[in-house]
Write a structure and sequence with these properties.
- By secondary structure, the chain is mainly alpha-helical.
- The chain is 45% helix and 0% strand.
- α2 crosses α6 and α5 (114-123) packs across α6 (137-149).
- The radius of gyration is 30 Å and the shape is rod-shaped.
Length: 151
């Protein structure tokens, strides 16, 4: 029996020592140096969309009837309450604001490029909220397409 016990101790001792050594290894702690960088070809799949106020964008959504229709629906839901359904009269919320929000008619839109409108919708300005977390980039571009056709 003593011989079997010695054999068990001889077999298990290296395994126990390995467990002790494993606890003493160098590890990376979150937010502590060294911070590991992602591989060069990595693509983020979570987090916020970054839209630079200085970047110039080209509208990737062709102004088709479907895009303009989607933009109108989005305008009616998100914008008309302040800016109004027509450029002459503001929406119910916009009437209570001093000064009232601008009417988004064709004359105002023709002086702005698509990137400027997209960035205003994305980041907001003044009292206008940002729609970056509320609308996808494609929906925001469809909204730009609709604003271009608005009279």
């Amino acid at each position: 029996m003593k011989r079997i016990l010695e054999l068990v101790i001889l077999v298990t001792a290296p395994l126990l020592m390995a467990a002790i050594w494993m606890d003493d290894q160098q590890t990376y702690k979150p937010y502590k140096a060294p911070v590991l960088a992602p591989p060069a070809s990595a693509v983020p799949v979570s987090g916020k969309e970054l839209v630079s106020r200085d970047a110039e964008f080209k509208n990737p959504v062709t102004p088709t009837a479907a895009s303009i229709s989607q933009g109108k629906a989005l305008f009616d839901i998100n914008c008309a309450m302040c800016h109004g359904n027509t450029s002459i009269e503001r929406g119910p919320v916009g009437k209570k604001l001093v000064p009232p929000p601008p009417g988004l008619d064709h004359d105002m839109m023709k002086g702005l490029n698509d990137a400027t409108i997209f960035k205003a919708i994305t980041s907001g300005f003044g009292r206008m909220p940002a729609f970056q977390d509320k609308l996808t980039p494609r929906e925001r571009w469809s909204l730009v397409n609709y604003l271009r056709t608005r009279k």
